[in-house]
């Protein structure tokens, strides 16, 4: 840090199991990736190449190389997995992962209907090849999954081999964990946490109010995802109680003065 | 593309008459232009230097040179045309176009009152000097133009020499084609399309929901404009059915599995 | 300017006492700072390193050097001052200002409770070390300060040594001067201006509609702050009547044609 402040919440250091920040790259240039890592490389744990943007971005190999050199793992968004599945191209997908040297992958079913047994089979198969993040929750605002079902799905996916489960929110933060207004479905989150260890869940929380909500509930070291590259530094200050939104929260807990 | 997926909607290749993506540069640095073109140069067809930003940006000549070298035509936003007209400086405007080597120009009347005959005269005059895009629709949310009038204006402007007509939405996407909430005036769009060929219209659609709406109605090769530079890659995935929003749309049409 | 337009509102030239544009850097990379200054260096007067982002950004010294070389003063956001104060580290804060060669500082009480006498003492002490901007208004949307109190606080802070007083709006533009919807509390602003000279006030106005409102009320040379780096060029066009929002406003005043 650039100077010393007392009573800052403790942050696990990288590499860490909790306090993960997952950022979303939806088409950065090589120089923009370098700039992002110059500023936020110490704070970001993993980068998702959003949905199937990797299909069209012309700089994919070089970009993955920059992230690799910086020690930041990357993975393709779950929509890409689904795009291969819906076309009966699962084996092609596995080859693409190898071809680009991917060590992580996401399994999701946000844009298609898939039996949950089948989803768990994909998780099991892929987890022999890469580290799997699996995602629970629909991208369709009309599909409301009740809390007991979120828990059942998350448990089964972790047992099938998922390293962490992701709570779906999209880039916009308006489905899944969130109402269409962006408001957190708080009862849902609290019930999930009675059954699933919080370090196993990566919460998608692209909007600042959502990040604040999770940090107030679960502390500085909650796993948060779908963070825009330019918002990783702001998020880190929220984690540390150094932005207005959480300024009093941590001080009240620790009574520093 | 970086890998092969079956059943992807067909996209016309550049240079193309339909499937245009017009991006808006509202003050990029030279390096940002280079970064933008590295990532999105294959997908963007034309770049608008938003409204009259060209008056104040200090890097104008060098920037135009970068776009030119990449084969991407540029034009000044229609508000600049109007700024010259309202000051009785039309001949100065023509000289500015020549001075900067512009080969496209926009004629609009979104911020001032102009008889439509007069507007068509400007289109006719300028179309002898450059390729003209003309814009229909007011920037004023209070001015509601009925559908038959949109059609009459568009027809007259194409006849006067406009290469394409633009449906106004502003950078915010909340006027003209759209209600103040950003919702598409869908009846208006459908009625226009009964009379004007869709390849002659460039729809301003800065918001994702608007892009999705047009792509679902008119397909992957609809002309869309006022796209932020960082949103050209996301838009391309929406056109190809590779983002959640249009994932099922094209598959349902083509029944790939 | 790149070409000549008649009847453009007069803008004070830099260095200036009015017409200030304060931009917020919330974690730019060094190259992004260079890009920002290439485009907007002629228009931005001062840069705030937002809230306590300076605590976590790894490139702080080098970044400050770039701004310094370009002649753009910088200061740390008021939340950093408050973070030191709430920890009883005021003397550490003074040393940090010296260590980084800061010549400006912000004194605020948006995230903590502080007697106003105490705030004015901090302003008095710091104004012997640096040029002080002090901020009035809470970050808490629940705390409504009546107009007579805004005036009383602003007067006292200017008398205590503040160079300018800032009207609080946050990065989001939804508290203090603004209702939670972002709408300007216009009666409040008008009453303040009956008592405080407008060149002494820097209005935080991150949203375009807010910038437009202030420019229509107070003219091209109003002091505006919390402007995103990429919005400095757009703001300059609004000041000059060269964007739709203020296009007619200045023309109607000056009757150019």
TrEMBL record, chains A, B, C:
<dbReference type="Pfam" id="PF02679">
    <property type="entry name" value="ComA"/>
</dbReference>
<dbReference type="InterPro" id="IPR003830">
    <property type="entry name" value="ComA_synth"/>
</dbReference>
<protein>
    <submittedName>
        <fullName>Phosphosulfolactate synthase</fullName>
        <ecNumber>4.4.1.19</ecNumber>
    </submittedName>
</protein>
<dbReference type="InterPro" id="IPR013785">
    <property type="entry name" value="Aldolase_TIM"/>
</dbReference>
<dbReference type="GO" id="GO:0043817">
    <property type="term" value="F:phosphosulfolactate synthase activity"/>
</dbReference>
<keyword id="KW-0456">Lyase</keyword>
<comment type="similarity">
    <text>Belongs to the phosphosulfolactate synthase family.</text>
</comment>
<dbReference type="InterPro" id="IPR036112">
    <property type="entry name" value="ComA_synth_sf"/>
</dbReference>
